[in-house]
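Example 5.3 — GTP cyclohydrolase 1 type 2 homolog
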Amino acid sequence: MLACDLIAKIEDYAPKSLAWEKDPIGLQLGNPKKEIHRVMTTLDVRPEVVQEAIDQQVDFIFAHHPMMFHPAKNLDLSVPQNAMYADLIKHDVVVYAAHTNLDAAVNGMNDWLAAALQLNDVQPLIPNDDGQTGLGRIGQLTEPQTVATYAGFVRDLFQVKAVRVIANDLQRPIQRIAVLGGDGGDEYPQALAAGADAYVTADFYYHTAHDVLADDFVVIDPDHHMEAIAKQHMVNLIKDWQTENSWHLETVFASTTNTDPYTYI
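Solution (predicted structure tokens):
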């Protein structure tokens, strides 16, 4: 099959029109008319991920995070990121990214996170005009839990050593939970206004955390890497599309490389 056939299905599932205006989504590198056989999904495109792809003879990488947030200003191959681009070109690998469009899509990133967080009656936190797509999700736990208990569940779910909790009372019961994958600090007022008891997001800023305490709100920050949940979900989707469309792919698999830059001691 051709890379463009897979790209068309991804864009049908997560339309590019849903992405933030400045988000560099879409084809990152390679020829969309290339014949592909081996597909790997990843959260990030980093040199170690590319090496895994090369070792596994991958010819199409799906990534959630765009590879070129900061475009190269030159092609000095002593720079690791530039060398990575060269390796991808040398091995004829197509790289495609769906980021904020996948976040906002129905049954996309934030729906996957909401399901993993055991939320029911889920709706977009900041809906688009259609009411079905939009930024973040908000839903209900079956039963109330204390902040401390739910934070422990979130920690174990995303397999981190610790989560950052911003709360005045760790024993407060919470039931209505908002979630926004990735960096969602700027959107905490919307979660508060939507009636959430707590908000799960990442990369929370120190001074914004003081504002959360002043608002007597609750935030649980399990690390941006929680979005790695997308790797297996995208594998499942692509395999479903392969069956529906009789695509000839040898394999579709999730990268096993951990790209979380943080170490918890």
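Remark. The longest helix spans residues 230-245.
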